[in-house]
């Protein structure tokens, strides 16, 4: 080996020796402090690992069904493509054979609230022209009846011209 290289390496060794000794002694001093800090931080480390597991767990479960997802995805793509082709063929056939309907059914005009009320008033007037009956007076004993049921003993009258 070259003697100048040997002298350069020896000089480098003796210059870096105090740095290496300092680093080794610092490591020996800091190592117990590191173990104490890790001991106190261990619950938080376990909690963080558990939270990470909980967050990533659904992805592990979904990864087990990967083949099912691929199967369903391919089936849906094939179904969409088949449906599109069949729709196109039917559209071409209906236009070639002139099967489309050219006449449109007229829509019934929707009734407004005012027209509904006017028609209802007109019906009531027609019904009440000859069918008016005199009022019926009921005594208190007839109103109460023989059993004290209150509202349950009364008859519920319904309208005859209900639209429902």
What is the overall number of helices?
4
Radius of gyration: 48 Å
**Strand share of the residues?**
under 5%
Low-confidence stretches: none
Largest sheet: none
Q: Strand-and-helix sequence, N→C?
A: HHHH
Q: Let me know the number of strands.
A: 0
**Overall outline:** elongated
How would the blueprint of this fold be written?
Elements lengths: L2 H62 L1 H31 L16 H16 L11 H5 L20
Give a description of the structure.
70% of the residues lie in helices and 0% in strands. With 164 residues, it is mainly α.
In short:
The protein has 164 residues and is mostly helical.
Q: Any descriptors?
A:
164 residues, elongated, mainly alpha, 4 helices
